[in-house]
Write a structure and sequence with these properties.
The protein has 186 residues and is mainly α. The protein has eight helices and two strands; from the N terminus they run H-H-H-H-E-E-H-H-H-H. It has a single domain, classed as Winged helix-like DNA-binding domain superfamily/Winged helix DNA-binding domain (Arc Repressor Mutant, subunit A), CATH 1.10.10.10.
Length: 186
């Protein structure tokens, strides 16, 4: 395999950090997908939600969506499926019955305990390409990149994605004046 072009001065897709990281995730992540779906009957998104709930039970759906970095609709769909599979339960808060917190069921905890070591093994196999100093450096680099990405999102002067109206938004970007096209002015 030839060495990709430099990240410092990209001239094509192969030189873009996000593309290269996406490729690593796509290839190695496919192993997690096969493991979760093929062996345990849950999607990677459901696994992410399950794993986050294993770390902190009693959170609200909106908090979970933020931690999972998923939109609320996708988180809600994953939770609905996990509840139907009896892996997650929704509990009304005693002080305010309108607020629903989330927790793993015993089956959910058992599934997490079964999957986590296997996913850890996949991660360890991937990291085995690096030495300990490189792993430590990568860990620090990822922390810095995550912080920078958060800063960039906070400062971004870009329209937010609207997946419900995505095609309309794309059309408006391509033809900002739809009346002009209808009247022949476009």
């Amino acid at each position: 395999m030839s060495r990709p072009e430099s990240l410092a001065s990209p001239t094509s897709l192969d030189g873009l950090l996000l593309y290269r990281m996406s490729r690593v995730l796509a290839v190695s992540g496919s192993l997690v997908v096969r493991l979760c779906e093929g062996q345990f009957g849950i999607t990677r998104r459901e696994w992410r939600v399950l794993a986050l709930l294993a770390l902190e039970e009693g959170v609200f759906s909106s908090e979970l969506a933020q931690r999972a970095q998923l939109d609320r609709a996708r988180t809600s769909r994953a939770l609905t499926t996990l509840v139907a599979k009896k892996l997650v339960r929704r509990d009304a808060r005693p002080d305010d019955r309108r607020q629903i917190s989330l927790a793993l069921t015993d089956e959910g905890r058992a599934l997490y305990a079964a999957i986590f070591p296997l996913v850890t093994g996949i991660n360890q196999q991937l990291l085995s390409a690096l030495g300990r100093p490189e792993i430590d450096a990568l860990d620090n680099i990822l922390i810095r990149l995550q912080q920078r990405a958060g800063e960039m999102v906070e400062r971004a002067d870009l329209p937010r994605a609207d997946r419900r109206h995505g095609t309309r938004m794309r059309r408006e970007l391509m033809d900002p004046d739809p009346d002009a096209a209808e009247s022949g002015r476009g």
